[in-house]
Design a protein that fits this description.
Elements lengths: L3 H4 L24 H15 L9 E4 L6 H14 L3 E5 L7 H16 L29 H15 L4 E5 L7 H16 L4 E7 L3 H8 L11 E3 L5 H12 L5 H11 L3 H13 L10 H28 L3 H14 L7 H12 L6 H10 L4 E2 L15 E2 L5 H12 L4 H4 L2 H12 L22
Parallel strand pairs: 1-4, 1-5, 2-3, 3-4
Antiparallel strand pairs: 6-7
Helix pairs in contact: 4-5, 5-6, 6-7, 8-10, 9-11, 10-11, 11-15, 12-13, 12-15, 13-14
The structure holds adenosine-5'-diphosphate and magnesium ion.
The site of adenosine-5'-diphosphate has 24 residues, from helix 3 and helix 10.
Length: about 450
């Protein structure tokens, strides 16, 4: 039976852009270095004369494309013949659950034909591994050998194991998994583990295994904003067109190269009726901006709610006001951040160190290693706001909803200024409105 849709000769082209967490973008822009490192791992895993590399870690503030990159890596590995195993956090609640799940997968993988495997020729058994059968030991002391055996069986042919949102991995499960993965690999298993998570992944992994992070080397991949050329590709390639210079400037001003916003902009341009293949002009972008701005403000509302639920809104505001006074986030020092959190702590249940960590962990404060000069070994990573211009939304929100608290969050220099403005109301302007540059310091030329 055919549906009426099948009868259409030329189905309408639907909007390819999906500004949704975890959605595969129509074109994965940039991330070439990360993909090169990943390809190196796949090659090593396929080389019988070489040991598989250790795990790879993707981390960064939400919306920067960790899940998208992971999905891309999974399909690329599958095309090259590797097995791909995606572990869901729900399957990893306890080490026992993990062992059960991996054993089942290992048993399954043994029965799958490996003739199509392109990464390695043949399926030679991994020395040192007994066959994994049936039940698993559920006593804690036997778990690691069970896990190692299961991973060894999976790793008889190249196997990519993915864990997204790995910062939420329970400590004991993570500990067992990291140990078993290392021991299976050291006994020749062809495994490539990829973990993705928010910026607190480093601390979470270090708690599971003290030396894990330092052993990652270049397989530790911070994911921040996309550079200009890649950002424009994210929109132009799916539309199979080019972008005029003035339009490109506008797109960068609106999106800051944040992948989530780029998808929103692409969707709005498409919905505004921009015909594909025709170069995108500044006028086309201007037409799309109202719709884009609506989506962006919806996104901010969700992120503001996250900050408020995490009791971080006042601290985020205090940090923003300090950045505002100093010309951007990049000028902030750790002492500035601590002082800002001290001001906020009177209006929050959290202690100062909890506020500082909370802002870093949530990605509100993000120091992207990739933006550093690789030739300057002592370079300091500048702070930025991990979700571009969320800082301005924070400042407006607190100003509007807690007008009594807002002045107390200002740094001393801004407070004096605010008092002067109060004393001379005729010259008063909105504390945020009068700053013409972006508080994140991201839009500065
Ligand atoms: N490199 C990229 N090029 C184009 N779009 C991307 C890219 N990375 C992510 N996106 C898009 O950005 C949005 C957020 O990506 P996502 O993978 O969910 O981020 P994260 O997992 O870091 O929170 C999604 O709509 C995704 O399709
Ligand atoms: Mg994600």
């Amino acid at each position: 039976m055919h549906s009426s849709m099948d009868k259409r000769k030329h189905p309408k082209k639907t909007n390819p852009f999906h500004p949704t967490s975890g959605a595969a973008p129509p074109y994965l822009a940039g991330r070439k270095e990360d993909l090169n490192v990943f390809q190196g791992c796949l090659d090593c895993m396929a080389d019988p004369n070489n040991a598989a590399n250790g795990p790879m870690v993707l981390f960064g503030p939400r919306g920067n494309g960790k899940t998208a990159l992971m999905r891309h890596m999974a399909s690329s590995a599958a095309v090259q013949g590797a097995q791909v195993v995606k572990l869901e956090i729900s399957e990893l609640k306890t080490p026992e659950k993990l062992a059960k799940h991996l054993t089942a997968l290992a048993n399954q993988s043994k029965s799958i034909s490996t003739s199509e495997t392109r990464l390695v020729g043949g399926t030679a058994g991994v020395p040192g591994f007994a066959a994994t059968e049936g039940s698993i030991e559920t006593h804690r002391e036997h778990l690691e050998p069970s896990l190692t055996r299961a991973l060894g069986t999976l790793g008889r042919k190249p196997c990519l194991i993915l864990i997204d949102e790995a910062h939420t991995l329970p400590l004991d499960t993570g500990r067992e998994l990291l140990n078993a993965e290392q021991s299976a690999r050291s006994r020749g298993a062809s495994l490539q583990l990829i973990l993705a998570g928010t910026p607190n992944l480093q601390d979470a992994l270090s708690d599971m295994n003290a030396t894990f992070w330092s052993r990652l080397d270049n397989r530790r991949r911070p994911l921040g904003l996309l550079p200009r050329a890649d950002s424009l590709d994210a929109i132009a390639k799916p539309m199979r067109t080019s972008i005029a210079d003035e339009a490109a400037d506008l797109i960068m001003k609106e999106t800051d190269g944040y992948p989530y916003f780029l998808q929103m902009m692409g969707r709005s341009l498409w919905d505004a009726g921009h015909p594909t293949r025709k170069p995108i002009t500044a006028d086309a972008v201007r037409q799309a901006i109202p719709d884009f701005a609506r989506s962006k403000s919806g996104y901010y509302i969700d992120r503001l709610r996250d900050l408020e639920r995490g009791d971080l809104l006042m601290a985020a505001c205090a940090v923003t006001e300090t950045a505002q006074a100093q010309g951007g986030f990049a000028a902030l020092t750790n002492s500035d951040i601590k002082a800002a959190c001290e001001r906020a702590s009177a209006h929050s249940q959290k202690t100062v160190p909890e506020l500082v960590d909370g802002l870093k962990y949530s990605g509100f404060l993000w120091a992207d290693e990739q933006s550093m000069d690789p030739m300057a070994p002592y370079a300091v990573r500048p702070w930025s706001c991990g979700i571009p211009t969320l800082s301005q939304a924070v400042s407006h929100e607190v100003c509007a909803q807690w007008p009594d608290v807002h002045p107390k969050l200002l740094p001393p220099e801004r407070r004096a200024e605010a008092n002067r403005e109060q004393a001379a109301p005729q010259s008063t302007v909105d504390a945020n409105g009068k700053v013409d540059q972006d508080a994140d310091g991201l839009k500065m030329p």
